Structure formats: C-alpha cells, structure tokens
Amino acid sequence: MILPWHLYLMAFLYILAGINHFRKPGMYIKIIPPAFKNPKLINILSGAAEIILGILLILPFTTPIAAWGIIMLLIAVFPANLYMFQNKKAGFGLPIWILFVRLPLQIVLIYWAYQYTF
C-alpha cells in the first residue's frame, strides 16, 4: 500500500525531531516548565515517542494508532510551548510573535495528525 506523501513528510519530521532530542537535549530540557520534575527523563521519553510514532506512522496497520499517539503527544508538550511564550529564557530570544504563533500551530498539527486516525 502506498501512503500519501504528506504522511511520509509527517513521519520524517517527527523522527527528525525525536532524534534531535538526543542530539541537543539541553535545548528541549530548557523549555520544560519547572513544575515538571525530572526534565531529562521527560526529554528522553518525548524524543523516543516522536521517533517511535514517526516510524509507526508509515506502517499502514499502525498509522491510525500512531496518529492518535501524536495527537496525545502534541497535547502533552503544549505546556512547553506555553512556557516558551511566557519565559524569556525558555524562548531562546525568539520574537514574541513567533512564540505566540507556535501556540495555535499545535492545533494545526493536531488536525494534520487527525487526518490519519481512520
């Protein structure tokens, strides 16, 4: 079964993002809100989840499960995006408008993943 190109793109982006959690962990640990304990473990788990879910996206029999997993992951990491918006140090010096645009972008990414849940 040949899957649509945009599904392969999504899988590639999540796998790449997941790998980056291990290449540059400090970048991700920095954006985890202090209310969450053990940011190193959270970084490892979220990076591994992105890699695994990205791979599962391109297996036709696991695509819907992986898409639901990505939706849950996007909801779970939303506090990090909000923390980046609220905390200057966590925002990497990015303009506030970019940090603001990242918040509703989560909805777009959730919608994109939802397309593959059935």
UniProtKB/TrEMBL annotation:
Report the transmembrane regions from the record.
Answer: 6-22, 42-59, 65-85, 92-114
Q: Can you say where in the cell this protein is located?
A: Membrane
Q: Does the keyword Protein biosynthesis apply?
A: no
Keywords from the UniProt entry: Membrane, Transmembrane, Transmembrane helix
Q: Does the keyword Methyltransferase apply?
A: no
Membrane association type: Multi-pass membrane protein
Q: What name appears for this protein in its UniProt entry?
A: DoxX family membrane protein
Q: In this record, what's one Pfam family?
A: DoxX
Taxonomy, top ranks, is:
Bacteria, Pseudomonadati, Bacteroidota, Flavobacteriia, Flavobacteriales
